[in-house]
Design brief:
The longest helix has 29 residues, at 285-313. The protein has 21 helices and two strands. Helices cover 75% and strands 1% of the residues. α8 (125-141) packs across α19, α15 runs antiparallel to α19 and α17 packs across α19 (382-407). The chain has a two-stranded antiparallel sheet with strand order 1-2.
């Protein structure tokens, strides 16, 4: 059973990495797609955007669908959809079908939370904690794998070869899932009421090939529709820096409308017998605090990530920067991923004697150190590389510590649903950080490129946001009662 558990861990982490790699394929290929399909860069940008939007909606939906007896069926179906989507990106077809394929690939971003639920159900407590931590890190740090691989494939063989990487990965994940993915364990019936759930106390462990649970509930279609309206609108308006630059009033209107729809969705979920997301769990102080920390912390983390990647690719004609190619810039991200995974391996062992608050505070302090380093020293290429490596360790430690805070007060049956909300919150934070960086640099652009002082200003603003995250960690009730 020990060897079988180890094989299951490798399978779960592989699926998590595959989702991150496929999701990151759009970013390095934007220029190549524009040239290959004869479309504008703005249109090509949608190959990344549509995958992220599809993932933002699919994550909570899959979190609910995968919380019951249908989890194995849901995972195999989504992997099958990813394979079909990957085929659409490889075969020479019109641009619209490429976007459809990227949307299908993006739906797989929600598989990470299902892999967390599998780990919690089928592994012993210590191994489950380590696996969940690695999965949380993989969904972020995995982009350091996808960037250089897709970059070199594009440079050598063209854009469809890079998308072929996605096809190979998804087919491998599907085949592995057929043989390795266990059925969901049998659970006692759960009665859900508008005034609160009567949860299954703990998960019932089962063998990897155990029988599926027999319970089922009605699916919350209204919740899916409202979420499919609110989340894409929210992420789009946050990420559209040009809209904020030239039509700030319209951007505010869209933002407010998206937030109102999201609020209406939350009210509906609280009154629904079998909700898409059990918002009652989100009212627990530790869970609410963890999501607030994830939102604010995510803004700073992705702000610095976007600043460094843009800085090293800026041509030397701007008076700064290093003019790196897509592939070379991808190699700069390797330390981010490697140190992120190192942190993901170390953090679960530290949690017992450091505690959630100190662990999150320490990892946020590492991110703050990366901001300061980039703000004051980046004249030689090695310095941004060191900064992004430090950032990777901080993000990895932060991401690995976060699930423990949430799952400590979450019933096993709600693992996927609870973590899907945290994943969406992280996406909103990352999108906000990316947009904030773009707006700051745009405000410091007088010619073709932003001034170097714009990067310095953005770095210190990010450092201030990260300091705010530290303050929130100090004040909010992160320790389960």
């Amino acid at each position: 059973m020990r060897g079988l558990g180890r094989g299951l861990v490798w399978f779960l982490v592989f699926v998590g990495l595959a989702s991150a790699v496929i999701g990151s394929l759009g970013a390095p290929l934007i220029t190549a797609v524009a040239e290959a399909y004869g479309v504008s860069l703005a249109a090509s940008q949608w190959t990344l955007t549509i995958a992220l939007l599809a993932g933002s909606v699919a994550t909570p939906v899959l979190g609910r669908l995968g919380s019951g007896s249908r989890r194995r069926t849901v995972v195999l179906t989504v992997l099958g959809v990813e394979v079909v989507g990957s085929l659409l990106t490889v075969i020479p077809l019109p641009f619209a079908l490429l976007l459809l394929g990227r949307a299908a690939q993006g739906s797989g971003l929600g598989l990470v939370v299902l892999m967390m639920a599998v780990a919690r159900d089928h592994l012993d407590e210590q191994r489950a904690a380590r696996t969940i931590a690695l999965l949380s890190v993989a969904s972020t740090a995995g982009i350091g794998i996808g960037y250089p691989l897709s970059g070199i494939l594009t440079d050598q063989f063209g854009v469809r070869a890079a998308y072929g990487l996605g096809l190979v990965v998804t087919v491998a994940a599907l085949v592995a899932a057929v043989f390795m993915l266990p059925h969901a364990p049998t659970r006692p019936p759960t009665t859900t009421r508008p005034d609160g759930p009567t949860p299954a106390s703990t998960s019932t462990r089962s063998d990897v090939r155990g029988a599926p649970a027999s319970t089922s509930t009605r699916f919350d279609v209204r919740g899916v529709v409202l979420l499919a309206i609110a989340l894409p609108a929210l992420l789009l308006v946050i990420g559209e820096t040009r809209l904020w630059q030239h039509h700030a009033g319209l951007a505010v209107v869209i933002l407010v409308a998206a937030l109102l729809v999201l609020f209406g969705w939350a009210v509906l979920e609280a009154r629904t017998e079998h909700p898409l997301v059990d918002v009652r769990l989100l009212r627990h102080p530790a869970v609410a605090a963890a999501n607030v920390v994830m939102l604010v912390g995510g803004v700073g983390m992705y702000l610095l990530f976007s600043l460094i990647t843009r800085y090293v690719q800026t041509p030397t004609a701007a008076g700064y920067g290093f003019g790196l190619s897509t592939f070379e810039a991808g190699l700069v991200l390797v330390p981010f991923s490697v140190l992120g995974f190192v942190a993901g391996r170390l953090v679960p062992g530290w949690r017992e004697w450091l505690g959630a608050r100190l662990l999150l505070g320490a990892s946020t302090s590492v991110v703050l150190a990366a901001f300061v380093l980039f703000a004051v020293a980046r004249a030689q290429l090695v310095l941004p590389i060191v900064a992004i490596g430090v950032l990777g360790f901080g993000v990895g430690a932060f991401s690995a510590a976060m699930p423990a805070v949430i799952l400590a007060v979450t019933p096993a049956a709600e693992t996927a649903s609870a973590m899907s909300v945290n994943a969406v919150v992280r996406s909103v934070g990352f999108s906000t950080g990316s947009a904030l960086g773009g707006l700051i640099l745009a405000a410091h652009t007088t010619g073709t490129f932003p001034t170097e002082s714009g990067f310095t200003t953005a770095a210190w603003i990010g450092a201030a946001a990260t300091t705010g995250t530290l303050l929130i960690i100090t004040l909010l009730p992160l320790k389960p009662r």
